[in-house]
């Protein structure tokens, strides 16, 4: 019996993104229903934990389930055909000679749907973030207001961030896929900002579950002004942090298991901000041979 | 803060049945000196002190029941609030620290005092002063919290005090203050080699210098006070061209007789932009657009652009082809395929975002059309073609206007479409 479950699970950190899980067997669906990357143990102070049992969250809709079945079998078919064609659905010669790859570009509304915006409203702050296509509908415009006023809940001490994050790639039947950027060594972005510094976050697949808050970060400085700016960030520069704290033992990111890419603004300056993104790609910088920019030996013993 | 919270039940018990006192107790939560009142301080002294504390020890429960404390309302004075807003500066802040240090040899309640002082630092304007942070760390009694034996070293020795020390360092980190040698010696003296505050110090000393100079567009700190200097700085930053020339069209001044203020006008134009403007056809208008925001750390400035719309695709000017017969001896045009190797194509497979050219940028002191028209008039001296091109002002409501309108709860977008030919 084929069932479709829609788990309206309030994933705290990820804007309450809805986890639509399709699974041929109910048993398997429960095994999968714990969102691993996008969930967080964060709970707002003063809010009671959500103790509703998982079967209460099931929203059964026959029409939707038919659509889901169609979608997932379509994806399955595409995956099989892609596998026959070559790695990642392209011929082998193209894959081998590839020097640059455009991962995300912003030319239509569908491209924006691969992204999630969030701000400190999740923790009770007052910042606002919006994402839309810019005037010529060729680029994405992330805009809003940053507000560093701290919510009065007695525990939160800092506030004021806005972020944009890509959704995790998912294959047929919502199995987990990862971006494989191991043949590249630099991230290339074409942006236009307003002079504020941003932080680029790489979320990678980690081995243990307690590493789910780990991110690789680096800074992205915008010049401001009317001209576009090409930013190239080598992957070796990204440093490991967990829950916003730099970690002592650093190691390079696993580039074959990239889940998400995000941008965070938190420069403690109240006011409006904007960031236009043309495209995000990866490339090989042959002049850059550095493996990792930070010391990998154990410090602070 | 938690320390105070622990003490709160004590306070509440003292003033049981008196809701006013209880309310005041909650009001005291963020302050420090409730731990200093004699009947509430912990009876245990610091470890090195062999003498009994001079103040009275905490009364036992039986005593309390026997005779309720007549002083249920505790008088208390916040030393930071003694100073008005006018005289809050570094001198008064260090004065408060000195007074606290001299009050009690044992520095009773220093953790709460340091937490309170950390909160007050931005009000006194000393949040970016390393010496004040060192003075704050100096409040901790020395060599009391250093673990003496292996058992103490194994467990978290004096955790509240260590947390407090970490908080001081975290606030330094937040404001971007790099600790110096004095901080190091103070931390070593207070907490010892293997303590959390010292670990935090070492982390800061490792990571701060790494990211100190990575900003390719640095902003001087502090920013210059003169708006003309700020305008020059920011225009040079956004022009992205080292050849660009800055022109100050008008310095800020006030006429004595008529009381007319002349706002400053600072513009920038690069030779490339100048030649682009030369090629612009006089049939198409150019636009003055703005204001656009630019952030220099925490200050926001606004700039205006002189630009043209993108040509419609049908009317794109074809570049003149040089026919190969023009010169028989050597080719006038070289079209070599200089790719390094098979597949070495470093370009990205995206459609170029095409936008209209930018001809000049400026920053002005007041956001009205007359000032910008004056800028255009100044531009005409170097770009005579501007006299023949119609200039359209497309100004959005600027930040100053927005502030005025939020009171009216109305937002409207002003599009001043006034085509005017400026002729000398």
TrEMBL record, chain A:
Gene3D superfamilies given in the database record: Galactose-binding lectin (2.60.120.430)
Keyword list, A-Z: Chaperone, Mitochondrion
Domain spans labelled NADH:ubiquinone oxidoreductase intermediate-associated protein: 104-277
GO molecular function, one term: unfolded protein binding
One term under GO cellular component: mitochondrion
Pfam families xref list: CIA30
UniProt subunit comment: Part of the mitochondrial complex I assembly/MCIA complex that comprises at least the core subunits TMEM126B, NDUFAF1, ECSIT and ACAD9 and complement subunits such as COA1 and TMEM186. Interacts with ECSIT. Interacts with ACAD9. At early stages of complex I assembly, it is found in intermediate subcomplexes that contain different subunits including NDUFB6, NDUFA6, NDUFA9, NDUFS3, NDUFS7, ND1, ND2 and ND3. Interacts with TMEM70 and TMEM242.
Name this polypeptide is given: Complex I intermediate-associated protein 30, mitochondrial
UniProtKB/TrEMBL annotation, chain B:
Domain of life: Eukaryota
Subcellular location: Cytoplasm; Mitochondrion; Nucleus
UniProt entry tagged with the keyword Cell membrane: no
Keywords recorded for this protein, A-Z: Cytoplasm, Immunity, Innate immunity, Mitochondrion, Nucleus, Transit peptide
Sequence segments annotated as region (Disordered): 46-70
GO cellular component, one term: mitochondrion
Ranges of residues in domain ECSIT C-terminal: 270-396
Record-level GO BP terms: cell surface receptor protein serine/threonine kinase signaling pathway; innate immune response
Recorded family membership: Belongs to the ECSIT family.
Name of the molecule in the record: Evolutionarily conserved signaling intermediate in Toll pathway, mitochondrial
Organism: Geotrypetes seraphini (Gaboon caecilian)
Name of the coding gene: ECSIT
